[in-house]
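Sample pair:
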Amino acid sequence: MQRFPKIHILAAATLCVFLGACAKKPVAAAAPATAPIAAAPAPQPTRASAPARTQPATRQVAQTSSRYPDAATRARIDELIGRIQDAYFDYNKHTLRADAVSTLNVDSKELATIMQQYPDYKLKIEGFCDERGSAEYNVALGDARAKAAKEYLVSVGVSAGQLDTVSFGKENPVCTDHAESCWQKNRRIHIAAEKS
């Protein structure tokens, strides 16, 4: 009788080991449950690719619109142009006088810095003369004055492609008296933003 319980104990121990080995199989069977987790990242690349499509379009719009200044920047440009004022010339001359250089220099470097950021934005330099001389001569002289101012602005960093020149000759005077004090006011260049 003592043998029987030992066999039972031995059989029970073997059965426990056997069942213990079988118990690990369901754990191994649970491993395929991780396969759906691995499959879950597959939708994420689809979501990640959608923003990638919208980002280049946003950048392209930003680059296109940034070629022209916004309203606040245009107001600052207008303020600088207003402070630069008109530059004046001696009779029958188109070289910039010292006071004309001083006038152009006051805010032209800041203007150049702003203009570099907006390559499609342009300024117009208008050349004027007093009433003396022929219309043809004064148109040529006004053109030479506008070009002299353009050369100066290019020398401080404004792109030549952003500066257009036009001559009005003796047309559009700011003063109509027939005296040197009036004629001096008409021998000038004026800078204005081009209308787009």
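The longest strand covers residues 163-169.
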